[in-house]
Amino acid sequence: QSKANTIAAPVLLIVGEHDMFAPPAVVAQIAARISSAEVIEVKDVGHDVHNARPEWFVQTVLGWLKQH
Questions:
Q1: Closest to 52 measured CA to CA, from 10, 2, 15, 22
Q2: CB–CB of 9/35 below 8 Å?
Q3: Residue 66 class from Cβ within 10 Å (0-12 exposed, 13-18 middle, 19+ buried)?
Q4: What does the DSSP 8-state code read for residue 46?
Q5: For site-directed labelling of 43, which of 2, 13, 22, 52 has its Cα 20 to 30 A away?
């Protein structure tokens, strides 16, 4: 039983288009249960978005944190 619907804080979910461990469809289902969730799907990468696009990842997370 997921408790995702009890999360009140802002949430950023970053998922790779080809993520085998947390597929985009599953992440979208989880995000749908979190009222404050934002999902970013990164094209042409798998589970290791932080390794595949390190500069983009850092800038995206820092920018999101500054907004929240």
A1: 15
A2: no
A3: exposed
A4: -
A5: 2
Per-residue pLDDT of the chain (68 residues; tens, 9 = 90+): 578 899 999 999 999 999 999 999 999 999 999 999 999 999 999 999 999 999 999 999 999 999 99
pTM above 0.85, yes or no: yes
Residue with tokens 């990468």: 45
Tokens of 68: 């929240």
40 and 61 in contact (C-beta within 8 Å)? no
Q: Copy the structure tokens of residue 21.
A: 């461990």
Tokens at 34, concatenated: 């979190």
Token look-up 């696009």 returns 53
